[in-house]
Amino acid sequence: MAVYPLPSSIILNKFSFHPFTSRFFPKPLFYRRFSTTSFSTVPQHLIYGPSLHKGHKIAHQNSDNFTRIFDITALRVPSKLCFSLESKLRGHLLNWPRIRNIVRVPGDDVEDELKDFIGDDSRDDDDETLKLLERRIYGRGEGDGEKMCEVLYRDKLARTFNSTGYVKFENLAKISRPKKKKWKREGNGRERRGNGRSDVSMVEVVEEEGSGDDEDFSGLLGDDFSGRKWSGSTRLLLLDERYANKGIEEMPEAIKAVLKEHNEEESTRLCFEIVRCKLTLFYNYWQMNEVLDVLLPQGMIVPSAFETVGHIAHLNLREEHFPYKKLIAKVVLDKNKPKIQTVANKIDVIHNDYRTMQLEVLAGNHSLVTTVVENGLYFDVDLAAVYWNSRLATERQRLLSCFTYNDVVCDVFAGVGPIAISAAKKVNYVYANDLNPNAVEYLERNCVRNKLERKIEIFNMDGRRFIDSIFASEKARPITQVVMNLPNDAVGFLDSFRGIFRNKHTDKQFTLPRIHIYGFSKVQDPEFDFHEKIRIALSEVAFEVQMHRVRLVAPGKWMLCASFDLPETVAFAK
Question: What domain of life (predicted)?
Answer without folding.
Answer: Eukaryota
